[in-house]
């Protein structure tokens, strides 16, 4: 029993420090998701930057990356039901600002949404034992008034999109378990 308690205390202490490093202090929205797969496996999916429509099928029809994977790459996303061939202009674009394979992290600026200076990020934290935690954050932005959507609706939209994204990431990796 004593050994079990020591393991739990160590897991809490080390897990707490790991989690704290994964979260941004200025985040407006933070979505963590524990996944029963290795951090490398999950990072392998996220690091490619493409196929984001697999994570948010209700909100993105197609996505494509321009430029080499890493800082400066641009991911374009079409509206649901559209592809890059039928969309004309993308519904929104994301430019990679930071990218680190070793730390399993990338952040990207989002353009084409009613928010100024929106920066989102993914971080994959290895929890050991074929488990990891993915943390998605949205930070640094201010809502831009517009006739299509108020701030409360935009926050609801972001909450719904990020919930679907994390749930799909969980489903894709836990289907094999």
Descriptive tags:
177 residues; alpha+beta; 7-stranded antiparallel beta sheet; two-stranded antiparallel sheet; 4 helices; 9 strands; 32% helix; globular
How many helices does DSSP assign? Answer: 4
Strand order of the largest sheet: 1-8-7-5-4-3-2
Number of strand elements: 9
Calculate the mean pLDDT score and round it: 87
Distance between the termini: 29 Å
Strand content: 25-35%
Molecular shape: globular
Q: N-to-C SSE series? A: HEHEEHEEEEEEH
| Oligomeric category | single chain
Structural class: alpha+beta
The largest β sheet comes out as: 7 strands, antiparallel
Q: What is Rg? A: 17 Å
User: Which spans of ≥5 residues are poorly predicted at pLDDT below 50?
Assistant: 1-21
Estimated helix fraction: 25-40%
What does this structure look like?
This protein is α+β, with helices and mostly antiparallel strands and about 180 residues long. It contains 4 helices and 9 strands; from the N terminus they run αβαββαββββββα. The protein has helices at about 1-20, 40-45, 85, 150-175, and strands at about 25-35, 65, 75, 90-100, 105-110, 115, 120-130, 130-140, 140-145. The strands form 2 sheets. It has a 7-stranded antiparallel sheet. A two-stranded antiparallel sheet has the order 6-9. The longest helix has 24 residues, at about 150-175. The two termini are about 30 Å apart. Mean pLDDT is about 85; it is low at about 1-20.
